[in-house]
């Protein structure tokens, strides 16, 4: 297994609060890797540390074999690694058209042929060119998240960091967005790291997962083991019970 993301003994602290405490994980090229746990367990902090949005107190993060530093000025990293945030209402600038939102990452990366790329990105996420000059407030929650996914994909990354990408959406829309993400991963041969509190989503979307509690990894599983309830930690069993519809209490 070739690890495209390798994290060793990662510690993230905010003043006196330790959000991650010596965490180590490896994610293989083309894999979809899940991070699950209760609120405050450190799973979103892990994504933010990879993206350079959380301070690294100790340990190492390597992407494609290259060690990452907290202060990142390498445009190549941000072209290879993109993040989709939980809240599609807050992650899109309300005063910019969809066209402007998609043009910005192309301009930052110095990528030309913007008209073709924007049209392709919108088509890929199932929106089409008719959405190009609308504003975020004119879109539904699911459509906004599709725009956020298009914005991440438009620079052609190899890794997507997904922080609860459907938790802010209506249940009827969640499956559509998850199916879109899975199709994109297959078509582009992407690597995913996905945070979710929904074990059903993780079982469907991910190959392997790490269960987090209080800033540490307490158990590592395959999705098949999770689906079969072949877990060893009581904490994981309690998460399964708490995940609505996953298992009966």
Question: What does it look like?
Answer:
The chain has 249 residues and is of the alpha/beta class. It has helices at residues 43-51, 75-80, 98-109, 114-124, 141-153, 171-188, 199-205, 223-227, 234-242, and strands at 3-14, 17-28, 32-36, 58-63, 66-67, 81-84, 159-163, 191-195, 208-213, 216-222. The strands form 2 sheets. It has a 6-stranded mixed beta sheet with strand order 6-7-8-3-9-10, sandwiched between helices. Strands 2-1-4-5 form a 4-stranded antiparallel beta sheet, with helices on one face. Strand 9 (208-213) and strand 10 form a beta hairpin. Helix 3 runs parallel beside helix 5 (141-153) and helix 4 packs across helix 5. The longest helix is centred in the last third of the chain and has 18 residues, at 171-188.
Short description:
The protein is of the alpha/beta class and 249 residues long. 36% of the residues lie in helices and 26% in strands. A 6-stranded mixed beta sheet has the order 6-7-8-3-9-10, sandwiched between helices.
* Quaternary structure annotation: single chain
**Major β-sheet strand ordering:** 6-7-8-3-9-10
Number of strands: 10
Total domain count: 1
How would you characterize the largest beta sheet? 6 strands, mixed
Strand and helix order: EEEHEEHEHHHEHEHEEHH
Give the second-level CATH assignment, the architecture: 3-Layer(aba) Sandwich
What's the overall geometry?
globular
Provide the CATH topology.
Answer: Rossmann fold
Mean pLDDT: 91
Number of discrete helical segments: 9
SSE-based structural type:
alpha/beta
Name of the CATH homologous superfamily: P-loop containing nucleotide triphosphate hydrolases
Uncertain stretches? none
Helix content: 25-40%
Task: Please tell me how large the radius of gyration is.
Answer: 18 Å
Terminus-to-terminus distance: 36 Å
CATH class: Alpha Beta
Beta fraction of the residues?
25-35%
């Amino acid at each position: 297994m070739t690890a495209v993301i390798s994290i060793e003994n990662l510690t993230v602290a905010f003043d006196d609060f330790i959000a991650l405490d010596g965490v180590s994980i490896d994610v293989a090229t083309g894999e979809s890797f899940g991070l699950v746990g209760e609120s405050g367990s450190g799973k979103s902090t892990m994504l933010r540390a990879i993206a350079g949005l959380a301070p690294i107190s100790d340990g190492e993060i390597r992407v494609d074999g290259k060690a990452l530093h907290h202060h990142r000025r390498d445009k190549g990293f941000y072209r290879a690694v993109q993040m989709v945030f939980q809240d599609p209402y807050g992650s899109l600038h309300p005063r910019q058209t969809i066209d402007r939102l998609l043009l910005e990452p192309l301009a930052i990366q110095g990528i030309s042929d913007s008209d073709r790329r924007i049209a392709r990105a919108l088509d890929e996420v199932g929106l089409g060119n008719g959405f190009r000059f609308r504003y975020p407030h004119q879109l539904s929650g699911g459509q906004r998240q599709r725009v956020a996914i298009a914005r991440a994909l438009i620079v052609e990354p190899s890794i997507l960091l997904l922080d609860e990408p459907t938790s802010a959406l209506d249940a009827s829309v969640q499956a559509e967005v998850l199916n879109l993400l899975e199709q994109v991963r297959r078509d582009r041969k992407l690597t995913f790291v996905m945070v979710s509190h929904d074990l059903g989503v993780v079982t469907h979307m991910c190959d392997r997962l790490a269960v987090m509690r209080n800033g540490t990894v307490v158990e590592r599983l395959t999705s098949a083991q999770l689906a079969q309830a072949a877990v060893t930690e009581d904490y994981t069993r309690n998460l399964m019970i708490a995940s609505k519809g996953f298992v009966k209490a």
